[in-house]
Specification:
The chain is an all-alpha fold. The protein has helices spanning 2-31, 36-41, 53-61, 64-95, 99-111, 116-129, 136-159, 165-172, 177-188, 190-206, 209-214, 223-228, 238-270. It has 13 helices and no strands.
Length: 274
């Protein structure tokens, strides 16, 4: 009886937490079909009419299609670049043990404790001097600098747990380093790669600060910046904002659901050694 009672209490607590966690998503989804007045007059109830007017209005008002395109370009190329740069760097650090590589590894670790506000102004000045202000590439290479250290450490920890026997056998058979990397190393890194892809997509897709600093032209704005246009000193279009949020969370949500089983295993594998 005690065991049944204890399980019931645990299920009750978990259910309560789940409801609290899911409530903002419920309110946002329902609010995306409501008028501005109805959102505040009927917060938790169903909409009076299931109209997609908010969705069509927000697409026109903030040019959401352009924002989608900008976010997709920045997110896709940032993730691909970090995966290849970090995996190649980690492979070299893990397989060639010398003093320079050990120092370089600790430099990667140390760079992660530097807060972004400390490098914010130098980053803006550097991007401006390179004439990459208001360009996709300026934001992408900034993400390379901000995200490569963590990705390298995660790859490094995983590679240190993997014996190099297959790579040595391939080298004896005449395979080049490039062939070994793409044919043997990259397939082994699949769990860690999937983890980094999911985490970085969520980060880049939802990031507001860096695009706000480097992208000031309206046609270059990403999705968070486009949604911010709905709020100013005098107006707050919550009805349109909720519709925009629902449309914008769908792509990262699909990616997360597709790769969620790799996240825990990938992080655990990358944290074994380092």
């Amino acid at each position: 009886m005690k065991s049944v009672a204890a399980k019931s209490v645990v299920y009750l607590v978990l259910t309560s937490f789940s409801i609290v966690f899911l409530m903002p998503f419920y309110i946002t989804f329902m609010g995306s079909f409501k008028s501005f007045a109805e959102i505040f007059g009927n917060v938790f109830g169903l909409p009076e009419s299931w109209s997609f007017e908010n969705y069509f209005n927000v697409i026109e008002r903030v040019n959401l299609i352009s924002a989608f395109r900008n976010s997709i370009i920045i997110t896709v190329f940032s993730v691909i670049g970090i995966v290849f740069i970090a995996s190649m760097a980690a492979y070299r650090l893990a397989r060639v043990d010398n003093r320079f590589h050990r120092v370089l590894y600790f430099v990667f670790v140390a760079s992660m404790v530097i807060p972004f506000p400390a490098i914010m102004l130098p980053l803006i000045r550097t991007i401006s001097n390179l004439q990459l202000f208001n360009t996709h590439f300026g934001v992408i290479i900034s993400y390379y600098g901000l995200g490569t250290a963590f990705a390298t450490i995660l790859y490094y920890g995983f590679l240190k747990t993997v014996p190099a026997d297959m790579e040595e056998a391939a080298a004896v058979d005449g395979c080049s380093q490039q062939r070994i990397y793409f044919s043997i190393v990259m397939p082994m890194l699949k769990p860690t790669t999937a983890t980094l892809v999911v985490l970085n997509i969520i980060w880049f897709w939802n990031d507001f600060l860096l695009p706000a600093l480097l992208l000031t032209r309206i046609y270059m704005r990403t999705i968070p910046l486009a949604i911010a246009l709905l709020f100013d000193m005098f107006t707050s279009r919550w009805d349109l904002a909720m519709a925009a949020v629902i449309m914008c969370i769908i792509p990262p949500l699909i990616v997360f659901l597709a790769f969620q089983r790799f996240i825990v295993s990938g992080i655990a594998a990358g944290a074994v050694k380092g």
